[in-house]
Amino acid sequence: MGAVECEQLYVKAAACGDVAALPWFTRRLMALKQFERAEELIDKHRLDSLLLGELAAFVGDAGRFRDAARLARRAYERSGDRNGARSLAHHLSGRGMRRPAEQIYSRLAETGDPVAAQWLTAHYEARGDAAAADRMAQTALTQYGDPAAALTLAQLRADAGKLDDTDRLCRLAAEHGHAGVLVAHARERSDHRDHATALCFYRAAATAQHPKALEWMSWTCEGQGHHQRAEDFAHAAAAAGNSHALHGLAHLRFFKGHRDDAERLNRAAAQTGSVLAQQWLIRNGLPTP
After folding, report:
1. Is pLDDT of 9 > 70?
2. Is residue 13 pLDDT above 70, yes or no?
3. pLDDT at 1 over 50
4. In this model, does residue 76 exceed pLDDT 80?
5. Mean pLDDT of 245-253
6. Which of the 8 DSSP states describes residue 144?
7. Do the domain assignments include residue 61?
8. Is-contact 267 289, C-beta < 8 A?
9. What residue numbers bound the domain in which 266 lies?
10. Of the segments 39-48, 68-77, 95-104, 150-159, which one has the largest average pLDDT value?
């Protein structure tokens, strides 16, 4: 049975109310590059608008970028689906066609798309337009509620040695409630031995009183010989619900030979509910709170 006969059967079934198989057949038409017919079926039978996004990607792969952009816009207008436009922009960018990719991403960003905002931020920074990169990152953070663009820019600035900018962007992310994301990024940077950037992320998260960031800052200060600041951060972490910071600092002091400090800090940790601190006191024959 040929394609025409197959289509007639699918269309006949759809006319009788059974449209379940039409999406499969429409995708088959896309694979065969019968794009106009695929679009006709989607429109005539009011198929899922997400198929328009898929069609946009197929048309873009075929090099028909203007038609692909039109279909991507239609997909978004009908269903709010951005995937077709994203796929097209990514495809264009991968082919080195960054200007048309920028145009599509810009339209997506106007709809509040954080993926587009992240791409545009990196794009503006790469071409030397730092002001535009800053504006895009802050728009995504303050209006879209997404920190990805700001943290991407923070990393790019750190890679360029602009740690003051990195600090500023990270603090802005923390102020808008994204301390947990900062901590996740900080851990990832630590794993890659990028300790300068990790410190920026942790320090910003600590300003928002994130318990793990406060603990990390405590250990960092202790390693730098800032013992009182280390204790201040550890107590702040305990107040934020992380009593392990005090026990961890006590552990460091104990193995440096500062037993009195270890006892004092473990007692404070035990008072905040640290089971490990209580066990340490018991093992050392000391009364627990």
Report:
1. no
2. no
3. no
4. no
5. 94
6. S
7. yes
8. yes
9. 209-289
10. 150-159
* 35 and 65 co-located in one domain: yes
Residue 12 within any structural domain of the chain: no
| Dihedral angle of Cα 42, 36, 90, 181, to the nearest 10 degrees | -10
pLDDT for residue 70: 85
Closest C-alpha to 262, from 283, 241, 242, 239: 283
Residue 286 has φ and ψ, to the nearest 5°, of -110, 145
Contact 245, 215 (CB under 8 A): yes
Own/partner pairs, 178-187, CB within 8 angstroms, 24+ separation:
178/141, 178/147, 179/204, 179/205, 179/208, 179/209, 179/210, 179/213, 180/205, 180/210, 181/147, 181/151, 182/147, 182/151, 182/210, 182/213, 183/210, 183/212, 183/213, 185/151, 185/155, 186/213, 186/216
Q: Which residues contact 51 (CB under 8 A, 6 or more apart)?
A: 23, 26, 27, 38, 42
> Is there a domain that residue 6 lies in?
no
Residue 256 lies in a domain: yes
Pair 202, 213 in one domain: no
Mean pLDDT of 243-256: 92
Strands (E), 8-157: none
The CATH number assigned to the domain holding 222 equals 1.25.40
Q: What is residue 65's predicted lDDT score, i.e. its pLDDT?
A: 81
Half-sphere exposure of 46 (CA within 13 A, CB side): 3
Q: How far apart are CA 128 and CA 262, in angstroms?
A: 51
Give how many domains the chain has, as a whole number. Answer: 3
Whether 228 and 180 map to the same domain: the answer is no
Model confidence at 7, in pLDDT bands (50, 70, 90)? low
